Amino acid sequence: MPRQSRKRGKQVKKRGISKEQVCIATAIYRKGNLIMELACKGRITSNELETLYDGHITNGSILCTDSHKSYMQFANDLSLEHKRIKRGKHKEGLYHIQHINALHSNLKKWMNRFNGVATKYINNYIKWLKWLQLFDTDKDLMNNSKLW
């Protein structure tokens, strides 16, 4: 195990992002595709971002993120246009991070139901939630379309 286990979902001892917590990298495409994967312990680096999103982001894409420094390095390495939302803001013109913040909120609420998930099983839970999210949008499309 990369860290000491916490029995029965007890809280971490350090506030904020630390090596006691795992990072789940998330991305949402405008067309609805969703990427959610276990990335690392603690803060994510640009090298880990490159490994995770290799093959998922094409040239000419616009990367819209918060103000973390590793995203700036990642965008520079891949020569992507980068829209950076400043700390304390959620929107800057057309670009915003509200969809990803809602996804993070849904992920936290959904994981709290299980009263702590082992790190070795967290990928299974992430895939389960991803399937539910994608199926929910398909169900909405089917309800709104008229199949006469």
Oligomer: single chain
In total, the number of strands is 6
User: In percent, how helical is the residue content?
Assistant: 25-40%
Q: Would you tell me the structural class of the helices and strands?
A: alpha+beta
How many helix segments? 4
Largest sheet: 2 strands, antiparallel
Radius of gyration from the alpha-carbon trace, in angstroms: 17 Å
Order of helices and strands: EEHEHEEEHH
Cα shape: globular
The N- to C-terminal Cα distance equals: 55 Å
Strands across the major sheet, in which order?
1-2
* pLDDT averaged over residues: 80
Flag low-confidence runs.
Answer: none
Task: Work out the strand percent.
Answer: 15-25%
Give your account of this protein's structure.
The chain has 4 helices and 6 strands; from the N terminus they run E-E-H-E-H-E-E-E-H-H. The strands form 3 sheets. The protein has a two-stranded antiparallel ribbon. Helix 1 (46-53) packs across helix 2. A hairpin with a 5-residue loop joins strand 1 (22-28) and strand 2. It is of the alpha+beta class and 148 residues long.
